[in-house]
Each structure stands twice: as structure tokens, then as C-alpha cells.
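Re: the 308-residue chain
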Amino acid sequence: MHLAELTSVINTPTANTVPRWMRGCFQRRSISFANGQTDTDTRVFWLQSNLLTIDLRLPVTAQQEKEGDDIQKKADYEGWYAHADWDGKQLQWRGGATYQLHNRWPEPAILQRIGNCMMEFAPSGIYVEDWRLLSDQPGPLIGLELISETDLSSGTTSPRKGALIICGRHAGLVIDRPHPISDSGGLLKQRLTNLQIDESERSNLLDFETSVALGSLSEGFTVQHSLHKYRLQHPLLSLTGFELDAKSGYLRQRTEDNGKAVERLFRIDCCEMEFPFTPCTPSSEDSLEWFQREAPTLTRYTRVLYQN
């Protein structure tokens, strides 16, 4: 069954949620550091469902093309998913799976959204990030967490981590490495360039999926940004083969992974077919009156940023 056909019968959990203004697909416009420097070029995407976060960080497209399969360069890319924990003031992340072998962003996030702009402040004051909402029309908001995978030829079931988040016209996918990695410490770059590891271990270290795609729930999504160049302009994943396990409330999907027939089990984080992705946020009547009064100068050059 197509995923779109199941949305009407999926019950969405309501407890322990992040605020609705925090959900959607955001692209980072800039990060500014305490030393006065700012980065506006790194491609960074943040997809947020109810309690799942997907994050992808890449160099500019031309640089990724030039770097090709350079292992040392690819070792600096970032992609992960995690569980979001909102305490009313700060957002923290735990669990999930990450391409890097260490936590590059250990601080929680202090967040405030105005319009389509969400500002993220590091409590230490070392950086501030400016994020922009990409989806501006109502559409599906679906969050699924991969729990396990069964090899249908052998019947063997193994734990497998990952996440799928659909935010209107945007979707993100994370699939963890097929084999657990040994916990021997060190950075990803150190492990990948260690001459003592064999090729199968190096291949497993690189075999981590994080991709962001554009499309629709009905027609499917095409990868636009990914840790791996070979994924670009290919389908993000099949949206067919799903069925709802009435007993557990989980979703099962029968699909193929590199030519191998598998069944994947997903925990449902959220499912809304008409989530109101809006670039606007509430404001007081007094402030709206001020805005209208001063509009001739306030709106002289205004435009919507990062709507695509």
C-alpha cells in the first residue's frame, strides 16, 4: 500500500511534543560566531517532525562535486537524526544515529521564531544560527523512525536505525550503517584514513545515508542534497509496500535495499496530512498597527527569503 493511503488510519501520538512553530523543513541562512565571523555558504538543512530531527550539513555544491570521493573531504560532512527533547526553553537532542563518530554540536538550542525566521542561540554565546522555513503551504507532516530490518531471504531480523520526515514538498531520510561499528573512539576522519582498517570496515563507515529531497507524497521525492553524490536526482525511497500493524501500531514496509528484499519496521512519530506550514507568526495588535503605520519605510525592500 502507498504511504499516502495509510495516513487516514494512522493515529498520531500527542504527548511530549515540540511546539508546532518548530516543525517543518528549515534551511540555514547563516551562522555567526563570537569571534565576529559568519558563514552563509555551508548547505545546512533541518527537518523537524513531532519528536524527530534530521540534520544535513554539506559544502557548497561545486565544492562537493570537486571533492568527489575524496575520503578525507567526505569525513567532514555531517548527517544525523535524533530525538528532540523540548523543556519549554531549550531543545536538546539524544539517541538516533550519526555519520560522525562524535557530537559536533553538544550545546542545546535556545530558539525563537519570528515569521519564517527561526533564530537558534547557543547558551554559551559561541554562535547564533538563522534558519528559514522552506515549506510555506499546508501539506503533510509525517515522521517515521526506523526500528529494525528483516532480510526476507533469510528471515533474519536486525536492529536498524533511521528516520523519514516529510514536510510538505520536502523530505529527509537517514539510514544508519548496515553493520554496527566498533566503539574504539576517535574521529571519523581518523578511522577512515587509518591504514590498519580493511576495505570492508572503511566501506561500512561510509555507508550512512542522509539525504534531503523535493517532491510530493503522492508522486514521490527526488534527492537534491545528500552525503553521497550518487544519490542525487534519484528517488529518495519507495513510498509503496507499507502496511499498518494493528497490534503494535507500527508501520511495516516491504522494499528493496541494494537489490535485497527487506522488511522495515517504523515507529510512527507523527502524521498530519494538512499541517499549516506558515511563514507568519503571531504578534500583538499594537505591533501590527505600528507595522502598518510605518510600512512605507519598513517594507520598502522586504522579500521572503529561502522560499523555494
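Residues 12-135 form a domain with the Lipocalin fold (CATH 2.40.128.280).
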